[in-house]
Write a structure and sequence with these properties.
The protein is of the alpha+beta class. It folds into 2 domains: 211 residues, Ribosomal Protein S5, domain 2; 131 residues, GHMP kinase, C-terminal domain (Alpha-Beta Plaits). The chain has 9 helices and 13 strands. The strands form 3 sheets. Strands 1, 2, 3, 4, 7, 8 and 13 form a 7-stranded mixed β-sheet that branches. Strands 10-11-9-12 form a 4-stranded antiparallel β-sheet.
Length: 354
């Protein structure tokens, strides 16, 4: 099976329903390395998708480029005879779904207790990929607990094939590019193509502090018709912009990342903010859109090299060799921000089995 052959999903379903694990992928019973696995996992900065016409709800794809950010997200899984969960109740459905995938794929006789603590910058629909990083983190952690019988790409397939969003305690089809799972698997900057194919990685060892800024945008999260309207705009904008964006990524952004040239990275990210998907996403914030553009324009004028919005926002990432300039810019405006480092290593480097 490949991601072109996924079954159609209903608009709403229980987290343990419609689990896709190809028969040939299901493992025979495996003895674990220990009883628990614990560690931290990163947030995902999604600089841009490549073409929103190549994905849909329940249909992974679209491509994208972004990077991982070290965080204080913590996860602990313990083998148990019954399911237990300690963590934000809002994320209970995606945790439940990830465990249902693990139970089927790893052919588990017992289940797992989960303790989940999230960094303060993580919240639903804020652009940091909370559902995708939680699902990816759990499946990579279970893989570590059971001696890594699945390859990184197989785990990424399981995430993409079963990804869902939360809607009042139940699951619904989600939009998934595969970037979060690539960041978990490889660390650093990652480029993925359509149907989550992994293309390129750079560890981003040179990256200075990353400031994650959250604007005080007084609007509800995207939902229902707002999501649909934003996606329609993204599809239309990307028909005109996808060739330009692909050229920008291949000819400017990736060489700049490889060279460790913050200014050139920032220039490429800057150009991406003003067309295609990003334009439609910021438009979706209504009157706040001009406020968001004013924020990034002023940040660039202040000399901050890299300024961009992650995914649908409203989280922005600001990166500069002059950390005091970033700090001054944000504090002068009373904007909440968090200082983080780049995630340069795979998630397995942060997991411990006991």
């Amino acid at each position: 099976m490949n991601l072109k052959e996924l079954p159609e999903l209903p608009s709403k379903f229980r987290p343990d329903e419609y689990i896709t694990v190809p028969e040939q992928m299901i493992k025979e019973e495996i003895s674990p390395l220990g009883n628990t696995v614990s560690g931290t996992f990163p947030c995902r900065i999604h600089i841009t998708p490549i073409d929103c016409n190549r994905f849909a709800y329940g249909r992974p794809g679209g491509g994208g480029i972004g990077f991982g950010v070290l965080s204080t997200n913590e996860l602990k899984l313990a083998l148990s005879n019954s399911f237990g969960y300690e963590g934000p109740q809002l994320y209970r459905p995606i945790v439940h779904r990830a465990l249902a995938v693990a139970k089927k794929a790893f052919n588990l006789n017992n289940t797992l207790n989960v303790v989940l603590n999230l960094s303060p910058e993580v919240s639903p629909h804020s652009g940091l990929g909370s559902n995708a990083i939680i699902m990816s983190g759990i499946l990579f952690a279970v893989n570590a607990l059971f001696k890594r019988p699945f390859t990184d790409e197989e785990i990424r397939f399981l995430v993409a094939a079963n990804f869902a969003e939360n809607d009042d305690g139940i699951s619904c089809p989600g939009l998934e590019t595969g970037l979060a799972s690539a960041i978990m698997a490889y660390g650093g900057f990652n480029l993925v193509g359509d149907r989550i194919h992994h293309i390129w990685q750079n560890p981003a060892l040179y990256m200075p502090d990353i400031h994650l800024a959250k604007l005080d945008i007084s609007r509800k999260k995207f939902s229902g018709s707002e999501d649909d309207a934003m996606l329609v705009r993204s599809l239309r904008e990307d028909l005109d912009n996808r060739g330009i964006r692909s050229y920008e990524i291949l000819m400017d952004l990736i060489p700049a990342i490889a060279d460790g040239d913050l200014k050139a990275i920032g220039d490429a990210v800057w150009r991406i903010q003003f067309g295609g998907t990003h334009l439609s996403m910021i438009q979706a914030y209504g009157r706040h859109g001009s406020e968001m553009y004013e924020f990034i324009c002023n940040a660039r004028s202040a000399g901050i090299e890299i300024v961009g919005m992650s995914s649908v926002g409203p989280t922005f990432f600001l990166v500069s060799d002059r950390a005091e300039t970033v700090k001054s810019y944000l504090e002068h405006r009373g904007i909440t921000y968090y200082v983080r480092k780049a995630q340069s290593e795979p998630i397995y480097c942060q997991l411990e089995v006991k």
